[in-house]
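Let us practice reading a record.
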Amino acid sequence: MTAVPRLSVLEICAGAGGQSSGLDAAGFGHELAVEIDQDAAATLRLNRPGWDVHEGDVREVSGYDYGGIDLLAGGVPCPPFSIAGQQLGADDERDLFPEAIRLIREAKPSAVMLENVRGLTSARFRTYRQSILDALFRMGYDADWQLLNSSDYGVPQLRPRFILVAMRPRYFREFAWPRPAGTPPTVGEVLHPLMASRGWRGADAWAKRANTIAPTIVGGSRKHGGADLGPTRARQAWLRLGVDGRGIADAPPPAEAPVDYLPRLTNDMAARIQGFDPQWHFAGRKTSTYRQIGNAFPPPVATAIGTSIARALGAAAAHAGRSATGLPTAS
């Protein structure tokens, strides 16, 4: 039996592989993953040794080398639009939407998926958002923005993400945003096995207390933010869940810890809150690892959107009497 070829993706600003692993699960094979951070690039290679990973600036990549790909995806840097930052938008040197538009123009993918923070939904960025839609329309794409909560797709934290999907019109007519998957698991349900892994007798009671989803995990940047669970408001929310948010632990609570011990999360626990598979491993030291995890796009959300995109591409191809893979781009 002949193997069905996978849909192809060029991913920019791939980070530690949240979106990457999610798209992988949705049936996309990476032609290239672009990531400037050394440790995050090492994480991608660690988990997917066969991938072509470009460790460097996205400005160094030419879309002409990847013409005809099915999907161009990425999580462009959020600081230009983050509520926690100065919200400089297009005036921020870290704004890479123009580079994404350049690559789309050069590679001419069948579909585009870009994600960012909720801050981009602000009224102050209305003109900026429209400029992106206008640029895509001139290149022959229909597009839509949508704010999705990660908790709607099985992730135990709210984590709203603003998603742009653009497709050639014949594909976009077949596209539908993924439906919510139901009630997400609680923090206690997800983390209980790890909290109890060293014999802590308080794990059961702790899990019952942590009976809701988590606040959004914040990874910070190299200049701002260390290995802790965010600003004061976030730490207070973690405290209500029975978690000390002032830092990241090296290991789960030991057997000798008091029953009423206030634990900190480990990096493994933070990764579960983000929806990473336990088999996904991270390169780098503790703070770098936490930063990679905290800045990631939750894999289950990427899988849900990627699956919707793959279905649209396949449905359009079926209507045209062609294979659902190896799709041609618009002429």
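A brief commentary: The longest strand covers residues 28-35.
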